[in-house]
Write a structure and sequence with these properties.
mainly alpha; two-stranded parallel ribbon; binds fe (ii) ion
Length: 358
Amino acid sequence: MVTALKKEQFEEIRPGVKVPAKDTILTPRFYTTDFEAMAEMDISVNEEELQAILEEFRADYNRHHFVRGEEFKESFDSIDGDTRRLFVEFLERSCTAEFSGFLLYKELGRRLKDRSPVLAECFTLMSRDEARHSGFLNKAMSDFNICLDLGFLTKSKNYTFFQPKFIFYATYLSEKIGYWRYITIYRHLEQHPEDRIYPIFKFFECWCQDENRHGDFFDAVMKAQPKMLNDWKARLWCRFFLLSVFATMYLNDIQRFGFYKAIGLDAREYDKHVIEKTNDTAGRVFPIVLDIENPEFYQRLEVCVTNNEKLREIVNSGTSKFLQLFQKLPLYFSNAWQLIKLYFIKPIRVDNLEGTVR
Ligand SMILES: [Fe+2]
Ligand SMILES: [Fe+2]
């Protein structure tokens, strides 16, 4: 019986409320930053563009978009077994990532209010969007008889501190990759409606425009701070963030290929497409992009995929923790080595293309 299956799959804090996924290197993070440094940032060189973006946020195009219609009233018990678990995991990860944006933007909006009103209002309006997104995803989880306690999550998760410029690299990329992830799923299901086994995907088209606008906001902020993009340190950091974001997504998604299969996508092809698009997009603001055409790029990521599979097998083998440690160590070293080698693949300079169509 399906009902029995779905209940037992998740640990609960209390009935119907899921214990949040454990923090690992691959789970979505919560961030905090130096609010004082953020408030002192001078954005005047690009004030006009930021003002235009603010006007777009105020227009609130998606005000009436996130409404759960009749299509959510049916039962989704036909999504069962492993697919159901993967579905809930997808919703949880997405909800946590959106909520992470909400918390950070909300706090930034509050702290910058009197010092940097344009930025503050942009952050507050973005936090409005992220609250809608995470709320909508959490409601979707409840279609599978489980949800997250976002208040509990706020208190229980660890917060990673990033200096403002790192916040900008990281959030810019996560907004743009979010855009490409949502739109790619949407376009695929538009071609293959038979694979749309759950109605939330229909909402992705307008939804991803929110993420695109958020990304454009961070693009404009970075352009207002040329030193974030101009020197050799910027090139090294951009390389680092591009690689971390792409590798994290790839390792997560290949591990959960069953979710993508359930909606008719091949996880590898999907990820390669999203990486290519995000890499191209990042080239509009970052001084470099990654050389993802280099055969080494996916070869090394695939070694990490295999290592991670072996690591999971070791954990599930039931042998003593002590023995497991020795089995795991070489795999951890191999992963670290692959990532170092990936980092040293020569990136492609795109900053000297300024003025051409990028
Ligand atoms: Fe969002
Ligand atoms: Fe966003």
